[in-house]
Specification:
The chain has helices at residues 29-35, 130-136, 149-162, 182-192, and strands at residues 3-8, 41-47, 68-71, 74-77, 101-107, 141-146, 166-170, 196-198. The chain is an alpha/beta fold. The chain binds pyrazine-2-carboxylic acid (VGL) and zinc ion.
Length: 203
């Protein structure tokens, strides 16, 4: 079995002080650095939005951050402006060790559609190319951790299963936004989909 470790969105804007700070978000850096030397292959994802991205509440008059709207592709949560291409907020946390990363998948760069998952944008159709990349390289198993457990990590894990990969999520190397019960709902969805929810002690 060939395994890739995928570190999801360990970026300044998801860490304390950032535009979309996840509680305790920077606590994932040390365990993720430890995980990144345990597996054959390392991949990073980077949330990478153009200014004025359609997932930003600031683009929708009268709509506040952390509310939802209906987009042509379905329900979309609106966020504060975050991870704008080229800004400091979009950079990886400066303590994240990215030396072993073989691939960086950037996502959310199309103005009209958001992308939580490392595999597909939120229309659940437009591919990032990751599935093909993993298949081409003979990688059959993925281990994931990062930010945020209930959004980009969970959507990536569910899509990994849809694409036929076995998948583990290292829960204590991830932190959640937890919006309206999203952590419990997405944890249940991952379990139902056959994602193994593990801890650092299991790795
Ligand atoms: C994320 C909300 C918006 C994430 C990215 O990385 O979980 N969440 N963009
Ligand atoms: Zn985003």
């Amino acid at each position: 079995m060939t395994t890739a470790f995928i570190a999801i969105d360990v970026q300044n804007d998801f860490c304390p002080g950032g535009a979309l700070a996840v509680n305790d978000g920077d606590a994932v850096v040390a365990p993720i650095n430890a995980l990144s030397v345990k597996y054959d292959h390392v991949i990073l994802t980077q949330d990478w939005h153009p200014a004025g991205h359609s997932s930003f509440a600031s683009e929708h008059d009268g709509h506040d951050p952390l509310t939802t709207i209906t987009m042509p592709y379905g329900e979309q949560t609106l966020w504060p402006d975050h991870c704008v291409q080229g800004t400091n907020g979009a950079m990886f946390h400066d303590q994240l060790n990215i030396d072993r990363a073989e691939l960086i998948i950037r996502k959310g760069y199309r103005l009209e559609v958001d992308s939580y998952s490392a595999f597909f944008e939120n229309d659940h159709k437009t591919t990032t190319g990751l599935s093909g990349y993993l298949n081409d390289r003979g990688i059959t198993h993925v281990v994931m951790a990062g930010l945020a457990t209930d959004f980009c990590v969970a959507f990536s894990a569910l899509d990994a299963r849809k694409c036929g990969f076995s998948c583990q999520v290292v829960m204590d190397a991830s932190r959640a936004i937890d919006l309206g019960g999203s952590l419990a709902a997405m944890t249940e969805a991952m379990s139902q989909a056959g994602v193994s929810l593990i801890t650092m002690a299991d790795t």
